[in-house]
Amino acid sequence: YHIGEVALKIIQIECGVTLPEEEAGLIALHFVNAKKYHKNTPYIPDKVISELSDRLGELDEMNRLVFQIFSETGMWAKEVAFLEADCLETARYEGAVKLKYIPYKTLKARRRNGIGEHHTVYVSPELAEKIKKQIIASEELRRKHDLPYIFLHQNEGYKVAMLNVEYFIKKINDLICKYGICDNGDELWNFTSRQC
After folding, report:
1. Among 71, 98, 85, which Cα is nearest to 168's?
2. C-beta separation of 5 from 24 below 8 A
3. CB–CB of 163/156 below 8 Å?
4. Residues ≥6 apart with Cβ < 8 Å to 3
5. H or E segment at 152?
6. In 22-59, which positions are buried (b, 16+ CB within 10 angstroms) versus exposed (e)?
7. What is the pTM of this model?
8. Cα-to-chain-centroid distance, residue 72
9. Cα–Cα–Cα angle for 59, 169, 42, nearest 5°?
């Protein structure tokens, strides 16, 4: 329970959102449930995130947004690629916004335990605004091709396409190689789609 209380304080400091004390128990439950998973998802060191963030201007706007969602939420790249137009929800706390997505890393366990397929995570107002802009920008393609996903694009002469996760990963790893971005052990970081 104490971990949940600490998490509430961090959320208040980092996000500017004050959650009721009864949320501490629910947050602590996430930590208890996490122990049930055998394989840990690798975390991107803060050093790598910081150095990559300084170089994101070299990516196109869509890939910058994907990286920001990826780094702020801990979602996998596939989870970001499959975000739908109704992915933003108003939270019950003033000024708070939640991002709704399908958590592929825990989907089998969710189904096995009768939990709904969608999960939500709080996002910063700044990130929520960027996602809203992406929803608006993709509206015509979504309507024209009857697709729900917000990360769509269409190059002239080609079919509409979703976010190419492998291409996104390659672009990030190209930046890592170009600037020699290393982990805390001074090894060149290898970015994958299943990190957070």
Report:
1. 71
2. yes
3. no
4. 27, 28, 31
5. strand 152-153
6. ebbeebbeeeeeeeeeeeeeeebeeebbebbeeeeeeb
7. 0.74
8. 6
9. 120
- Using one digit for the tens of pLDDT, what is the confidence trace for 61-102? 999 999 999 888 888 888 999 999 999 998 888 888 999 999
List, in order, residues 6 or more apart from 89 with CB less than 8 Å away: 97, 98, 99, 100, 120
Q: Which residues of 128-143 are buried (b: 16+ CB within 10 A; e: fewer)?
A: bebbeebbebbeebbe
Query: What letter does residue 31 receive in the DSSP assignment?
Result: H
| Helix (H), strand (E) counts: the chain | 9, 5
Q: How confident is the model at residue 172 (pLDDT cuts 50, 70, 90)?
A: very high
Interval 19-55: pLDDT, tens = 777 777 767 666 665 555 555 556 788 899 889 999 9
Cβ atoms of residues 23 and 87 within 8 Å = no
